[in-house]
Design a protein that fits this description.
The protein has 325 residues and is an alpha/beta fold. It folds into 2 domains: 176 residues, Lysozyme-like, CATH 3.40.80; 94 residues, no CATH class. 34% of the residues lie in helices and 10% in strands. Helix 3 packs across helix 5 and helix 7 runs antiparallel to helix 8. The longest helix has 34 residues. The N and C termini lie far apart (64 Å).
């Protein structure tokens, strides 16, 4: 089967790559199956024999998910039970993602009382939903996995075993979109419990995801410059009086905030370079005046140093206000 689209999720580490040890079967992914690891660290997955395609591990200090990829996206992984004589599970066009954390309220309570930081699936923080939505959006754009589910994610432990939401063989064969381990036939696991699937898909559809940094082309730079000029004079952006963006009414919702911040930094650097050039020019001019004069070396040095000090403009940038000269 032909594998189309990029096979590695941008930014994911391949430090725990099992594709060489377990080659798997080629697929064309149309399903994302979500799991929770029920632990607080990256699992060993029994040396890869039970590994998913990717694992998302929380970085609480940075408020982001760190991704590890174990198999190509369009290659079967090994986190589902697949009974002989039944339907295919791991190999049926399914990309599997494990999230380091728990869906079990009893485990959540125990860890919380012990002061152990962890992700609890029913109460994922906004940044975790954001990063999961970013992956869902990427899978939709690059592999056409629908941003839909239509399934109920039951809370654990009622999601375990014969839970009333587990698909039949024919339902599974015809399913496209997002599901959990609790929905897969031939399996009895109940993870990821009361998973916020609707919120993740809504964020993916509405674009409230985290984009990868990209290099700006010359056309991009020109567009930004033209936009800054037009918007500054239109009074849409606050400026420091010379067109440099200073602030946004709401930095969280203004889509141009990142560009504005970048441009402010560029403006500050240009001013600093201009000041340095002015200092050098003044010093050279002063030195030229003194050449041939009846002055000693100490006087020349002192005069040049004073010229530099007089010409240098100290620029400080405050991200919450205008650059001060």
């Amino acid at each position: 089967m032909t594998q189309s689209g990029p096979q590695r999720y941008p930014g994911a580490s391949t430090a725990y790559w099992y594709g060489s040890k377990y080659p798997g079967s080629a697929m064309e992914v149309n399903v994302l199956c979500w799991h929770s690891t029920e632990g607080t660290s990256l699992p060993s997955y029994d040396g890869g024999s039970m590994a998913p395609n990717l694992t998302a591990k929380p970085d609480f200090a940075a408020k982001r998910l760190v991704w590890y990829q174990h198999f190509d996206v369009d290659v079967s992984s090994r986190a589902l039970r697949n009974l002989a004589g039944g339907v295919e599970t791991n190999t049926l066009n399914t990309c599997q993602v494990e999230i380091v954390g728990t869906c079990d309220p009893a485990t959540h309570t125990k860890w919380a009382q012990a002061g152990i930081q962890h992700l609890y699936m029913p109460e994922l923080p906004d940044w975790a939903i954001r990063d999961l939505a970013t992956f869902a959006k990427w899978a939709n754009e690059q592999h056409r996995v629908p941003l839909s589910s239509g399934l109920t994610f039951k809370p654990y432990p009622s999601s375990y075993g014969a839970n009333g939401v587990r698909m039949t063989g024919s339902q599974w064969t015809n399913f496209n979109g997002h599901c959990g381990h609790q929905h897969v036939p031939e399996n009895d696991h109940g993870d990821p419990g009361a998973f916020p699937m609707a919120a993740i898909l809504a964020a993916a559809k509405n674009g409230t995801t985290q984009e990868d940094d990209v290099a700006l082309t010359d056309a991009d730079k020109k567009w930004i410059a033209d936009t800054v000029k037009a918007q500054s004079f239109a009074g849409v952006w606050k400026t420091d009086g010379i067109g440099a963006p200073v602030d946004a009414v709401d930095a969280k919702t203004n889509p141009t905030w990142q560009a504005q911040s970048m441009l402010r930094d560029i403006q500050a650097r240009v001013r600093a370079n201009t000041a340095a050039e002015a200092a050098q020019t003044a010093a050279i001019a002063k030195l030229a005046q003194l050449i041939g004069s009846d002055v000693d070396t100490a006087q020349v040095v002192a005069a040049v140093q004073k010229a530099i000090a007089d010409a240098v403009v100290k620029v400080s940038v405050d991200v919450n206000g205008p650059a001060a000269t």
